[in-house]
Design brief:
The complex is a heterodimer. Chain A is α/β, with parallel strands linked by helices. Chain A is 27% helix and 18% strand. Chain A is built from 36 helices and 40 strands.
Amino acid sequence: MKRKIVHPSPSQRELAGPRYWRSLGELASTPGFKAHLEREFPEGASSLDGVDRRHFLKIMAASFALGGVGLAGCRRPESNILPFSKSVEGIIPGLPLYYATAMPLRKSAIPLLAETHQGRPTKLEGNPAYAPHGGASSLLTQASVLDLYDPDRAAAHTQNGAVLTPAAVSDLLAGIGTKYAPALGAGLAFLAGESSSPTRARLVRELRTKYPNALWAEYEPVADEPTAAAAHAVFHRNVKPLYQFAKARRIVSIDADFFHAESGALYYAREFAKGRRVKDKDDSMNRLYVAESGLTLTGSMADHRLRLASSHMLALVAALAGKVTGDPIYASFAEGLDVKPEWIAECAADLSAFKGESLVLAGAHLPPEVHWMTHAINAALNNFGSTIELLEVPAPEAASIADVAAAIRNGAVQTLVILGGNPAYNAPAELNWSELQKSVTDVVRLGLHVDETGTLAGTQIAAAHYLESWGDARTADGTVVPVQPMILPLFGGLTEIEVIARIAGQPNSDPYAMVYATITGVAGGNPEKAFQRFLYDGFLENSAYAKVSVDFDDAALKNPAAAAPLPSLSKDHLEVRFVTDHKMDDGRFANNGWLQECPDPITKISWDNAILVSPRLAKDLGIGSNGAVLQVARDETQNFVKGKEGAPIAEVVLGDRRIRGPVHIQVGLSNYTIILPLGYGRTVSGRIGQGAGFSAYPLRESGTPHVAVGATLRLTGETMVLADTQEHWSMEGRDLVREANFDEYRENPGYVKEEGMESETPSVLDGPVGVQGGNMTPAERAAQIPRGNSLYVTPKLDGVHQWGMSIDLNTCIGCNACVVACQAENNIPIVGRDQAIRGREMYWIRLDRYYSDGRADAGAFGGEGNREVPEDPQISLQPVACMQCELAPCEMVCPVNATIHDEEGLNVMAYNRCIGTRYCANNCPYKVRRFNYFDWNKRHIDNFYMGPLGPDGMPELLKMVKNPEVSVRMRGVMEKCTYCVQRVENGKIQWKVKAAREGRPGDVVVPDGTIKTACQQVCPVEAIVFGNILDPESAVSQAKARAQDYSLLGYLNTRPRTTYLGKLRNPNPRMPDYNALPFSRIEHNSKSIPAGFDEGKTS
Amino acid sequence: MSNLFPKSANRLPLQIIIYLFVLGGVATAGVTYYMTPKYTRVGYAPVQPVPFSHALHAGQLGIDCRYCHSYVERSGFANLPTAQTCMNCHNQIKTTSPLLAVVRQSYESGQPVPWVQVHQLPDFAYFNHAVHIARGVSCVECHGRIDQMDVVEHAKPLSMSFCLQCHRDPAGHLRPRDQVTNLAWHASSPEAQLEMGTKFVHDWNVNPPQTCSGCHR
């Protein structure tokens, strides 16, 4: 039975407030869309149109009655409340509804709960019922809700420019089916992206049965799972590894960015953090060895990081395998490796000491031989079954894009159906896809955008966003999850499975029915109940891929012929590494403003990508080597002016292909590897994605999709400005991120107290951290140690809750998910490239990334200062949002009391009071206040300076993503992190209502864990804890009670409510690159402690 | 030398002064009235598309507020009844009344009845009905005797000072929770109200927010 989806109408409040729906019709360029719209928002579309004369007189009559002057109508315009005509089950106006769904990406998916307000999804959260993710989600999922409301989406089905009705599309697709039925599909080819959907797999099987001669190919430009061959050759079965990081105490990553680039990254990051988190000195802590060519977030967490070209990884892993297994067959592969033998020997020894508790993994982009060897190492270490599980996956059946290209060239393709993807943009360069595609007579393309591929296709079918689609998918471990629509397709888009079903001539191409059939077929039992359960839980229980135990067979390795000499790299023979961009992925998110503006977690560049080069290469090229002064970790060699990075433009030549792009010097890179982030330089995208960055795809060929060797880099002499949101590289020897080695921590868990200004000048007013007042409640402290000699009244802080936050720097991986989650929750606007260059980005939480190499500031006391850009620095990451200081410096300087304290310790902003003096931002030591220089929400992103003369208004569609619980700020007001005050207040209200209904009206203290801030909820590693610090049992109190707890700039006596837990590193003392102190500590000491001073002090 | 100015110009300075005084007076009066919280819409009673009488339904017939405003105890927003709710009774009573034509039409067509909003707070103020009901604040505190109104009118100022008056001293405005929707109820005397209210404030831990975050987000 088909379930009827009754979509909620906009709430009365929305309609009474800003009229989001009123001019949505303006977007309706086609009658088809209009019809859909009418169905979707029956109320909004037709009854809110302008005020007629009769109506006007009514208003005027009321106004005259009121004041005698017609001005009353000016002050408060009449607005309507539009209730439903018929009551809708489950909808309560004013309260959000949550549905389980999932975001599919390639061969995996992230299960989600979508928050919908009267029918429009506004925020996505991880589904807490899915245990492996525990309610966390990722950067891309957070931002994907914005894609739904992208005004540049394909708004209609078109054929050669003419709009097609839904009925015509249906006929067209069925027509393809009937046309090719007699020839059993000969002449018909499909090119799709990878998918984990069981329904799609079923339909494709049926399609292949019906059209055995048709070509079904799949293409993904980036790889997030090792190829099937990587496992099949050594296991003789179709398996894929699933790593169990929580069980691993020694981890070696061979160029694998498992925090981001591997499928299952969210699960991996989470599990990794479990092994990383140290709550007291008896806890164990995992140790991470990373060998990588670029600098990734995974590398930034490494305890030992080896810079090595990706093309040399095979040699490294062979050397490691040789050491671990003692088998000589690996020796030939390892020849020519330029890595200290002790590094490998000690690493291998460390692994061998943790048999069954260690893990070696290699990046998906590396050749199968590397994976064979990591499997060999893991087999020798007995890791299979403990830290690695092998999951039986379906055998790959699809052809490749090269097969499609060959078929087209042979004239064997008359109709090409492209489902998703964007081959005209990202296909391997040698295929010359655009020309190929043009040579096919009939191209039908299903796409979310009319992009590079869509403009070349004869027929473009608008695709439905996943939040508009019925579908299914599998997570990285194979658990089947539903993809539920939150809203009817805004542009009448079709889903992939609908298109396949129609071409295959399925009698019922309704996606709901197809998913229902698939799931009930798998689930068994009462189908209706099973399906409801599936939708309710958000996943199908026990549907994960089967764990299998297979024997490792090293026959494939006993073939030394495969060993090729290592390429020798130099400045004239560079290695090129193409990486999946953190934000754009492979380019599919290019028109997402939240992602474009979000700074790259490592380079901190927003709105652009850059050719990343190592400091050595930069020196060779003659950029960035002149004029270095003492504190060089702050890179004074580059042309930085207040966030504007003047980057030289270079040309990369690889064979006879070339691309141009700005050069950014990135520390931590392998000397002669250049990193090219993919996903930028879209030529047909939308108003956001167009023109951002350069495309590295023209350099890529099928044979070397991820790593290529033999490139040269040539400076063109031109420069361009990059929006670099953190030009400052160094902590300058200050104590912002406090670090220690694990061994030191075990002897002295309170190391954070001995580092930094507080160790010399402790805060007299400090909170839980400090010497005095540590055991008092905030209220007692406020009364007994008030702000000294100030005219300003110290806030009483007498509420029943006192909110606080703790951020664990030891587990924070710097993924930026909190940044965009905060943006989605708090209606934070994007400001555009031009304004980002001016440093006006609006993020309420930012991630600071610092480098330290132990040499900066050595010159402060006359020593030899560092004059080089560090090549091998340590990285420290720190999320910074408003600290909610109890004695907030911002409050003292506000002339209009727009920022004051509430009873529960929040430093609150009243936007309607703010007059925009910006004194508060100037007086904030943490620099977390953001000013609305323009009407970001009202003006167009490229026309801010036109003011009222410029075009007015944001696309109506974009307003739909706004959270109705948070004010949209206007020009001229200050804003900042509020600890998600809307969640706090609503949480308290819901609790009071519930308690009163249950007859306990006096119970007003919200239990711990009920209220979560957006950043806390999204955090994949649970680094952020928020709660009531008055409750000693609350998670936040427990976190703050830990010895590593410290306040940022605590000596300023601001009493921050957000405190940090110090970072730990766990280096191996036997390794050649061991350092007894973290580099930042060395820098701190050399700055604060002159030689010979305070001999006894060692910290 | 001829006169540059006509004789009437002699009166000009006085005229200008008087004019400025009048202008200043009007501006001051206007600002005082319109640009301060004193200006509220008390008395505003727009004509509604359906001449629904609360005096009849809630007053005479005694229908509880929550029959129509059904989610007021759960949601921040006191919902208006759907046409279906009206039709629960009116498919039996007054089935052909021309006054109800709009409701019947809405029920059949699916188009909403465009009720005119009477009580309206600024967009940056987030009022929550559910919590006030739960804490024993009666409808009548903000909406007045709706059960005596034929046409709903704006009875109280609903300005920030109005809100704060109660948030600063809630004792005078709390009542037993089962009397919240009984608009006619009142304590036997002001003293009794105060005594009872004080007890509720204590027993229920009533501590209404007085800082920005209570209402502004």
